[in-house]
Amino acid sequence: MGKFIIVNNITSNFCDVLLVLSSSICPISPLKEIEDTMPPYSNCKIIIDQILHIGNNSERFIYLEINHGEVSKSSIKFIQIPKNDKIRELSRDVMISYDLIDFSILTTIQKNMLNKGIAI
Description:
By secondary structure, the protein is of the alpha+beta class. It contains 4 helices and 5 strands. The protein has a 5-stranded mixed sheet with strand order 1-2-3-4-5, with helices on both faces. The protein is globular.
């Protein structure tokens, strides 16, 4: 498993691609790796869920754009995703599928919620 798990073809107002960090690494460090996973000359909007790095707080989701296959550094910003948004459900499903929850920095209550299928 790499530093992140990629979910493509998202139907969302926020992004085209969801990246779920698979460890507690800093999300900015793999920017080159993110560029390398995108097709050359691609353009897309990406949300990085860094809940396993920083927890469930206001800086959980990072937005960035890929323009012509490169990360647009000026587009990088924290965004708020509504509690009932599909992005949170997809992220939860990825964390469950890849068994990422139990050994994360999340609280016991947060882990239990995710393991019971509740998106946080």
